[in-house]
Design goal:
With 159 residues, this protein is α/β, with parallel strands linked by helices. The protein has one domain (7-158): 3-Layer(aba) Sandwich (Glutaredoxin). The protein has helices at residues 24-28, 44-55, 57-62, 75-85, 98-102, 147-156, and strands spanning 13-15, 21-23, 32-37, 65-71, 90-93, 106-109, 116-119, 122-126, 132-137. A five-stranded mixed β-sheet has the order 5-4-3-8-9. Helix 4 links the parallel strand 4 and strand 5. The chain is globular and about 40 Å long. 39% of the residues are buried.
Length: 159
């Protein structure tokens, strides 16, 4: 069953592109968190999504939000992608697909190219108490999350 608004978010710990562990618990101890799941680095819509987030990073910071983005790509692929796109937030590797599965954000069979086990494009706002305040899981990988609704959810969170 998918995670719902008002539920406790599933805890996770993943590696970032600097090979350091990042946990949801640590993130929510200091800020609200925007978790963006994205299918694959270096693809058109994913690049658009993450660059849009990069361009709005000051708005997220003013809303006391830390942004992290998660995909099933390796931390090495994500490191190159982060560097090329100059992304100022952590990209986390869910190479083993455990977190994507917990968040109901995994295509067992991706609609394109016959790939199996690709992350679904999804967005979650998690407050400082670890409660989900916004959840959007997109079936269509060509669509972007509703960034306006993400920011509205953050505005309702405790700063």
């Amino acid at each position: 069953m998918p995670l719902q608004v008002g539920q406790q978010a599933s805890e996770f710990t993943l590696y970032n592109t600097d090979r350091k562990e990042v946990s949801l618990k640590d993130l929510t101890s200091t800020s609200n968190v925007v978790v963006l799941f994205f299918p694959l680095a270096f693809t058109g819509v994913c690049t658009q999504e993450l660059c849009s987030t990069r361009d709005d990073i000051n708005k997220y910071q003013k809303l006391n939000a830390t942004v992290v983005a998660i995909s099933v790509d390796s931390m090495f692929t994500l490191g190159k992608f982060r560097e090329e796109q100059k992304l100022p937030f952590d990209l986390l590797s869910d190479f083993n697909k455990e977190v994507s599965r917990k968040y109901d954000s995994l295509y067992e069979e991706f609609p394109l190219f016959g790939l199996k086990g690709v992350t679904k494009r999804s967005a979650f706002v998690i407050d400082k108490h670890g409660i989900i305040r916004y959840a959007e899981i997109l079936a269509d990988a060509t669509k972007l999350p509703d960034f306006v609704k993400i920011k509205e959810a953050l505005e309702q969170c405790e700063k």
